[in-house]
Specification:
The chain has two domains: 38 residues, no CATH class; 310 residues, Metallo-dependent phosphatases (Purple Acid Phosphatase, chain A, domain 2, 4-Layer Sandwich), CATH 3.60.21. 23% of the residues lie in helices and 22% in strands. It is built from seven helices and 14 strands. It has a seven-stranded mixed beta sheet. A seven-stranded mixed beta sheet has the order 5-6-7-8-10-9-11, covered by helices on one side. Strand 13 and strand 14 form a beta hairpin. It is globular. The termini are far apart. Keywords: Hydrolase, Signal. GO terms for molecular function: hydrolase activity. This is Calcineurin.
Amino acid sequence: MQSQGISRRAMLAGVGGVGTAVALGAVGWQAAAAENGTAKFPIPDKSELNVLITGDAGTGTPEQFAVAAAARKLCEKRGVDLAIGLGDNIYENGPEDVLDDEFSTKFEEPNKGIDVPWLMVLGNHDTSGIIPGSGGRPSRGDHEIAYHQHSARWYMPDRHYSVAVPQQDPVVEFFGIDTTPLSSYVLQTDPEYHWDGPFVHKQRAWLADSLAASRARWKFVFAHHPLRNNGTHGNAGAYEGITCGDYMSGKHVKKLYEEVVCGKAEFILSGHDHTLQILDTGADYQGTQQIVCGAAAKTKGKANRPENKEFWAAYDTLGFMMLSINAGRVVTDAYTVDPETADYQHAYRHTRTDRIGA
């Protein structure tokens, strides 16, 4: 809930005097109550489930609210068991701290009524400093991890984690990772998050070991940055048309995906580009399929990348996706959204039955 009279972000900027102290106390009480008295929505324990996919949502704009309202209508109609947020959860720079009112205005309020665990990962706009979207201040991500303890919906226990459903004999396992230290628009000054630093090595080892150990029939790696992408940001290794350097090009994102994920997980789910894309598996990717779903609040145009074959894509419309998963197949339904009416339109259905190594 947003504080009365003055926002948490304004308080942190030094606005307010006595009124600031009163409002700060109110926000603190609310957060403590949530942390100590609100249970997390439970991870489902079932072998067939529906999973809502959104990305790049956290603007607080009417467009975000329209897409969330449309998704809520679909969830009420079809049922939903989990949701996934693919980064850029709090535009433009990420939260100031765990009590930032933007968690309410850009996540809780739009998604009210979609009462399931939201598996979240960090994007470049969640970990930025002076330059919006730079990805150059990873410490801001700590606030989103801490918010895991303050929300029934928000699920981000760490920068990388996995969730298997059901826990016994899992049909699917989701592996969330943080790709921003590998693809920021500025150099990382914190040695921990250098492209060749301790965090990157630890995350890579964790992901490789976790994928190898997983007993799930279907495996999804989800992160903000895509491996392949026909939108304007481009493919990993050539983001923004840049092919040199250790950060902006995303060449180390490409290396992580190709060396650790391809041939080990059936799907990569990503945002970053404000588009909707269901790409094919591609001969060079060992059965790993890229899905881009980053149009939950903004849209962006297409770049000419004929090497990435599409099953379906939309580049100039808002929307979201829904996965229906059981032991035998994964169905991906894409929905476009009219921001004026908050109505959804079913646009495409893709069904996959082949599993890697099956």
